[in-house]
Amino acid sequence: MYFTEYLPRINSISVIVENNDPIGNLIDIRLSSRDQVLIKFHDNEISVNLPVKIKRDDKIRIANANQTADYLQLTIALTPHDSNDVSEKTESFMDFSSSNLVQKWSCKDLKTKTPQTDNKNNFKLTCLKCSHAIIDSKEYDRFFDMPSELWSEMMEFWHCHKPAEDPNEKDSHRNYNGNLKPGDNDVIIGSSYFLINKSKQLEISDQDVKCGLCKYNLGILDNSTLKLFKWNLALKYKENIETFPSYIYVYNLIVDKINLSAIRKFNVTSESRQDYMFIWIMNIGVDVSTENFVLNNSMKVFYYHDDIRGISKDDESIESVVLQDDVFNDFSKQLSKINNFIPNLKKTMTLKLDEEVKIFNVSFITGF
Fold first, then answer.
1. The whole model's pTM is what?
2. Which residues does UniProt assign to the signal peptide (predicted)?
């Protein structure tokens, strides 16, 4: 088991390898490819996938190497020549935005991956449960990206006066009451949902929007607009079928909140108030790897499960976030899954919170 993290501010890669061999048995450390290091001992060798690619293919410079219990810790020092091929990861919390990246199932993503016929991309969004076609791109004229997950909140914050309405503009896509309304043949794409005005493929029951065929809950009625959550749909194009993990919604939501208010601590609760989690965002745009995965542009999260209902009553640096039960569970499972692949040496972190020492789990999550 191993863990690596690219540290752009000091232009190096931290490597931690779970290994019983004493450091005296270490023979060689070299690049086997642009994104893989081979660590050789007398009796065995370990291949470590790096989180970023580096240019040179000769011997790498090890700035530091030591053995702690059953762990070999290395620091690979990169040169400016190496880092020329590494994308910038030094954004501050206020500079980084989910809009800097291509969001899953955004206009740009759909344009890039789906086939075109007569300058129109061909794809279908289907019910996740029964595969009934809900949105067929051929039946819509235009697709628009939502500016932000928190668009309506920012509208209330920035607009002091409601602009004069144009009586001749019958098909407006925005109104300054904080609502965004698609035209009849348009689809507005948010980071975690699609907005449409009407559909014969859907059924409305109270405020729930359901699949017209199997009655699976796909979304909600939001100010007379049909709001379909991406994680309840599948994207089909050519021979491909994609799904949308709901934890991506949480990632995008947190990035937007950080950029809106600079808050990095959150009380996360399920809608039923049965589950609670406290999360502390330590960094954004992080590149890490283990033997099971490589995560790029990820969010570094410290978290713990506890009864946290009283933490943020008077603390303005902590914001509350309420998630649908299934979204909360998906987010929690993803954090735990990644945490399980991190060596014990880096799996937890002890920090002081509200004059109390807490043991946080360490994890990473991406928006892809």
1. 0.82
2. none
